[in-house]
Structure formats: structure tokens, C-alpha cells
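Q: Protein A?
A:
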Amino acid sequence: MNITNTSTQIIFNHFYKLRHDNKRSIIYSTEKENINSTIHVNESWISKIHPVYAMIFSFLSEPITVADLFEEIAYFLDISEEKAQEIISPILEQDEAFYIEYEGVKNYFPMNIVIPASEAFAKIRIYSPLDFCYDEVDIEQERYYVAPFTSVLMLNNKCVTNCAYCYADTTTSNQEMPFGRLKEVIKNAYELGIMSIALSGGEVFLYKKLPELLKVMKQYDYPAGLLSTKVPLTEEKILSVKPYSPTIQLSLDAIEDPILSKILKVKEGYAEKVKKRYSSTGKTQYDISGSYCINSL
């Protein structure tokens, strides 16, 4: 893969994402993103980098020739084109993870961070060098300055069971987050560069607008991920979330009604309803001990 020719059009590999964190910038990738490309990538990558590199990558948000990139960076950083070439060339052709030292800071990068524009395969996100302005650099601090990297949204505290071992506060009345507020939270998470969002309850399948919520998450490049439930799901509910490819985990606890009635306080027939629905998908594997089953839609 030759991208050192000055007339070659190149682009930032948008499988990776950039986020500014006040005194440093961060490059990261997300799990379970569909990869339909011959370009190899480092999945689940997170590293802190000097903001200057994030600024450089911002000029690569869209296709640009190598020669134009040298010129743009030289002008932006007020350096010679030879110096710009010295800074940029080491990141242009790297098919393995690597690091570069800049101003006493070691910057770690994943493989194929810059690729030929003709081989781009991920959704483009436009960055500006002004997104990564800084007054000082701190690569060492582990705690993030601006926002966490993962988030859990508790949709409600409603349940279909009343588990004897549950730690939840049962004195609080059943509530759920309004759909409009959840959309705002997901949009804000995307703008802050939060890497992943997990959904929790209560019971996620008792959230009436779950399919609509998964659609919003998909719009902002957040996969549905793992949905844990105790609901004996109907075919209608399964089909409503199938377009978003979640992994469904059913916590069954036991397979005998007398035991389930005692520890979950559910009605007789609960286990049969669960087994009938999940076995009908043809994809479910049951743990014979009754501890759980997982079905990937």
C-alpha cells in the first residue's frame, strides 16, 4: 500500500475516531463495528496523543493529496514544508501499531491510521483543527478531563419479576426516562466522544420506545450491544429490535417453576413461556444448569 507518493489522495481512517480531552487528544475505535474492508485495523483501541496529531488528522477528514497535506500543515503550524514532511511521513504507511515521540511525548497510534482515499470504508466524520486547541499537554493523567469513555443508561426501574436477591430500591415508584431526554443524552454523548453506551434497567424490554431508542443509537454509531432481560419475549418484541442486531441475554436462574416462583415470585408457567419463545428462534443455546442463555439476533 503506497501512500507516500505526493500525488496520492489519502484520508484519515474513520474506523478510528478522535476526541479532544482538554490537555491531550484521544484516538479510539469501537467494538463490534462492521468491517467490510481489506484494511486491517486495531479494534477496541484507545490511546492519548499530542493534540498536534489530532489537528493533523483533521486535515485528513476528507480526501487530500500528500503534497497538499504537507502544504496545509506547514501553513497551519507556521513551519517549513520540509519540517511538515518530517512530522507527517512517519504516520503515512504503517500497517502495524506504532509510536512516535514528539516534544518529549510518546504518541501511540493504531495500524493503518491513514489510508488511500480509494480504500476508505468507514463513515466520514469531519474534524476541524480548532476542535483540538490546547494550552498545555498532559498525556500521563489516566482520568479523563472532559467526559467518561463509556456510559450506562438506566431506562427504567420496572421489572417483570421480584427477585429475592435483588439489590434495587423497591420503595421507589416505577419511573422511566422520557424518550426526548434520552435522545438528548445520546446526542450529547456523541458530541463528547463517549465511546460506548450500554442500556440497563429495570427491564429494558418494558421500555415502550426501545426500538425507537435503538434507532437513535444507530444514527449516532452506537451499537445496540447486550440487552439483558427476564421477559418471556414475544415474537413481536424480538422482530422490533432485530434490525439493530442486539445480543439478548436471558437470565433464567432455574428451569423449574416451584424454584422460580420462590426466588423470582413469578406465576406458574414462566419457564415454559421462556423456553418456548427462545427455542423457536433456532439460535439459542441453553445452559442446562438454568443460569442463562444468550441469543444473538
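Q: Protein B?
A:
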Amino acid sequence: MKKRSPKKKNRQLILAFFIGIILICNGCGRKETGQKENNEKVNTEETETNAGFEEQTGQAQEEAVAENGETEEEKAAGVQAETSSIREQQIKNTDNETLLTMKANMIYVTVPGNQEAEDAINRFFADRHASWQDTVNTYREMAEQDFGTWCAMKSEDNGEEGSSQEDGQKEAIGPGSWNSYELDRTYRVMRADEEIISIVEDDYEYTGGAHGNAVRVAYNFDVQTGKRMALEEVASDLDEIRQKSVAYLGEKLPESKVAEELFGDYANHLEDILTDSTWYLDGNGLHVICNEYIITPHSAGILDFLLPYEEVDVVKERFQLAG
């Protein structure tokens, strides 16, 4: 793996996407009519944050080596999927009030000897980052509008209808008085070998109210082609894997830790859980993700069910690993 120029180019492309998110965010928190002095202060702080982001992103591979205890030689021998540390960024207005908080990390895949597959998988996640950048812009605008509305309502409650919005902001803002928006996207590598790469994406958003919303999605890739895999490609029989997963969940759920939170008609929705976006493989078996409100309320959180290879034999033998 001495010839790294194509991979360095990929890393630079993905890094550019990620830094693009931060650069867009930096321009979001300042009002056009804000004071020049405040803007200069915000610019300085955000430049330092960007430097930290770039440095952290560039250390993704070194961090993975430290966490996994692997040497560069060991890592070079096979397929790799690495994530950078989760970093946090805040968008603030000219009054230094936080409008939007974001948490995210990056992922980079290496497939020795198969540049085409490697490029395809990394392009997929680069596109995910670009899409998330658009979402960041949308949420920033929403938060800015909602904050202005909140300030106006707060001023009215305080009997200050004649006050300007700027006056209302200065007098009404206080610790805990405004709940900023939150938008997170993080990745975890569940399996990466010569047969399959399984990666889980966790998304979270909060735009006010009693609680936020979370969703988990799994992405599985064919290491030979770099294409995203459907359930039928790993199942020994598609109908059988659906039937056995429903039967297995029906047996285990009544005695699980979420038994008391199950909806009354949960049994009627077990077949809705397993889709092409809610499964992944690891060393122990087939995992099935169950997002909120399918069989349990928000309080139960996102559920992850393991169907062990040795107990539920529905995965093609070449994808099975010893637990």
C-alpha cells in the first residue's frame, strides 16, 4: 500500500465535504446587521474551532490504530473501516446565544487491491455528508426564525410590546430559557472484512418540545463491488429469514427488558421491523434494528436485536463468523 495518491485524493475529497459543513456553519450564526466587533470575535473563535476539526479529522486513522491496538502493517493486510472522533460545533448569533448544536464524525474505508470498490463506498459517505450539510443549513434557518419568535413572545409576556426584537433578546435571554436546536450524525463500524462492511448511522434531531427524535440506519457493502447490499444477498432464503426473525423476536420480546413498554398490538408489527435499512452483521450474528414507535414508545429508545448465527441459521455460510 505504498502507492497512496488515489486514497489521499479520496481522503481530501471527504475531508473537504466535512470541512464544508463547518465553513457553511461559520457564516450562519452572524446577522448582517450585527456589530462588526462581535463578528470579529465570532470569526476568531470559529477559526480556532475549524483548526481543531481539521486536525482531529486528519488523525482518524491514528486514533483507530490506538483504539484497536493494531499496527500499520496489520491494518494494511485487510479491509479497514475507520471513524474519526465525534466532534461538536455550535452556531451562535451576535448575542452569543446558541442556536444550533451539531455532533458528527467521519468515516473512511480502505479496500486493498480494489480501488473501485473503495472509491464507491467512500463516495457514498461523501454524498451523505453533502446531504447533511444541506440539512444543517435548513435547521440553522429554522432555529434563527424560532429564536426570533421566542424573543418576541417573551417580550409580550413581560409587557414590552413596544420593545424592539433586539431589546427583547437582551432582556429575555438567560440560562435555560432558550433550548437550542440539535442535529447529530454519527457512524459506527460493526464489521469490516473481506466479505462485507457493515456500518451503522445514528441520527438525532431536536427542534423543541418534550424530546428529540432519533433514528438508526444500517449500511452494508459488498467488498468486491463497493455496492450497498440488500437483505436478500446475505440471506440463505429471503422468506425464511423474515419468518424466522419474526418468530425469534416474538419469543424473546415478552421476556426482554422492554417487555413492559411493548405496545398492546406489537405482535402485529414484528414483520415491519426487518427492512433493507435495519440489518447488519457482526461476529455474533444478524442484528435487527427496531426504531422508535414501531413496537415501543420513545422512552424505550432504539432497540437492537441479535439473531445468533448458531441459533437462527438464515445467513449464507460465507458471511457467518465464529462468535
